[in-house]
Amino acid sequence: MKTLGHWIGNKPVESTSSRFGPVHNPATGAQPTRVALASVEEVDAAVAAAKAAYAEWSQTSLARRTAFLFSYRALLDAHRDELAELITAEHGKVHSDALGEVARGMEIVELACGIPEKLKGELSTQVSTRVDVAAIRQPVGVVAGISPFNFPAMVPMWMFPLAIACGNTFVLKPSEKDPSAAYRLAELAAEAGLPEGVLNVVNGDKAAVDRLLAHPDVAAVSFVGSTPIAKYVQAEATAHGKRVQALGGAKNHMMVLPDADLDHAADNAINAAYGSAGERCMAVSVVVAVGDTGDELVAKIAERARALRIGPGDDPASEMGPLITREHRDKVASYVSGAAAQGAEVVVDGTGHTVEGHENGFFIGVSLLDKVKPGMAAYDDEIFGPVLCVVRAETYDEAIALINSSKWGNGTAIFTRDGGAARRFQLEVEAGMVGVNVPIPVPVGYHSFGGWKQSLFGDLHVYGNDGVQFYTRGKVITTRWPDPADSAGINLGFPSNH
Asked: Which long-range contacts (CB under 8 A, 24 or more apart) does 101-105 make?
């Protein structure tokens, strides 16, 4: 069995903690790898390496930083298939989906390549006689990143490329369920020329997280995960004086108006609900059918759902792979099995699905629940699996009120041909990311990603301009260079601008 340790100071480090976690192949249920779970001392070693590297890296020219990033982007491109294979082997998503994940992560590397434009600063000359004022942004120090299992390569790339482009050094704690992709990202960064200690990876569980949140040399923390853990991360990290961006969970709604193209809406509902087996925070988990669209829309979604091909992610014929663990698969199934008792109609039940030759894999079929209402567990909870709920609403006003009453506000979408309705929706809906006839409105790299309400804890979203602002701090410099012939003498009065 392979053992995966840590990456500290540009080299692999074997763990001395004697604690390990299993890394499964979700398609087979086998455990080909175990991952070391870091001790406090090992986390401290990673932070120490990052701190030692910060003094030089923070003063490294933008030209050298961007040269590294361009080289890194080229290596990622050359290894994208390899990275996708690692993701499929440990997460389970199909290879095409894994390739898409790598490509979306590389968008942020490309954004980071343009960091000189983002760090230009501001200058005002002659604000007073011979006085100039400049505003600059500088790195914050050592940054920790804590990333989730569902995007083991993309979410780390949301974090560390931009952080190190801004002059910070980084300690990444990936999910212990599928850590190999993040580890490989660090190896490739060293191959691209990143100096020792700038990017470090410590594998671990809550003990590693807690140490990063409390460590006095960690200045900022980036987190993506569930809402309860996002709350915890923000509370703990801010209590220790750290800057925090913590992205939590979601229950994303897709409103379908009576004038919408229902075939187009059904196709997109399938893609957004069941892609990546529903294990993504931007998945559509609720379709709000407005007016008389419900019956026809549900029938179209059901027809498509029953035709989906489910199998191992490395099979080109598979459209959806397994879930990440057996325990998670069983939890997702429990929402479907309990839905009818709570008053929902189970239109498609995927809980008994098996894949021939992969009976020990963590597979589940797709499920479609109709006539779901708030108060039902399938509606109230973030299921994080291939379960789509349909809620009926008589009017647009009823539908928008339903969406806005959710405690989450990550992403949402409307499907309509009516431009006025779409414009009203994008202004009235209470969510951080909005799609108009786009079911998963994940922004491109130069716009920022993040939600509202209990989908975000902290003031700044990830990547884009918010990401640059998070990984830097502002400094204002006021200078006066008087003419040597001038002598103003002593004046104890309050300085004035003139």
From this structure: 101/151, 101/153, 101/154, 102/76, 102/153, 102/154, 104/154, 104/442, 105/76, 105/151, 105/153, 105/154, 105/155, 105/156, 105/157, 105/158
For residue 333, what are its two tokens? 């199934």
- If you average pLDDT over residues 149-166, what whole number do you get? 98
d(CA 47, CA 104): 28
Instruction: Residue 478: name the closest of 132, 138, 135, 137 by CA.
Output: 132
Instruction: Using pLDDT thresholds of 50, 70 and 90, give the confidence band for residue 487.
Output: low
Neighbours of 469 (CB within 10 A): 17
E-only strand ranges, 227-377: 243-247, 252-256, 284-290, 345-348, 367-370
Q: Give the SS3 label for residue 307.
A: coil
- C-alpha to C-alpha distance for 468 and 448, rounded to whole angstroms: 10
How much is the average pLDDT of 19-37?
97
DSSP, collapsed to helix, strand or coil, labels residue 495 as coil
Alpha helices (runs of H) in 79-179, residue ranges in sequence order: 80-90, 95-113, 115-118, 154-165
Residue 90 main-chain phi, psi, to 5 deg? -110, -30
Please list, in sequence order, all residues whose beta carbon lies within 8 angstroms of the beta carbon of residue 269, skipping any fewer than 6 positions away.
Answer: 254, 284, 287, 297, 301, 388, 439
| Angstrom distance (rounded) from CA 180 to CA 152 | 8
pLDDT tens string 412-433:
999 999 999 999 999 999 999 9
- Is 445:465 a contact under the CB 8 Å cutoff? no
> What amino acid positions are annotated as catalytic residues?
281
What are the helix (H) ranges across 114-152?
115-118
Q: Quick one: tokens of 83? A: 């990275």
Q: CA-to-CA distance for 456 and 469, rounded, in angstroms?
A: 16
| Strand positions, DSSP E, 366-485 | 367-370, 387-393, 408-409, 411-415, 433-436, 452-453, 456-457, 472-480
| Measured distance CA(53)–CA(45) in Å, rounded | 12
**What contacts 319, CB < 8 A, 6 or more positions away?**
94, 308, 309, 310
pLDDT for 462 beyond 90: yes
In the three-class reduction of DSSP (H, G, I as helix; E, B as strand; rest coil), residue 11 is classed as coil
Span 437-459, average pLDDT: 96
Instruction: At 261, list the tokens.
Output: 């193209």
Q: What percentage of residues in the chain have a pLDDT greater than 90?
A: 96
Here the tokens at position 181 are 């992709």
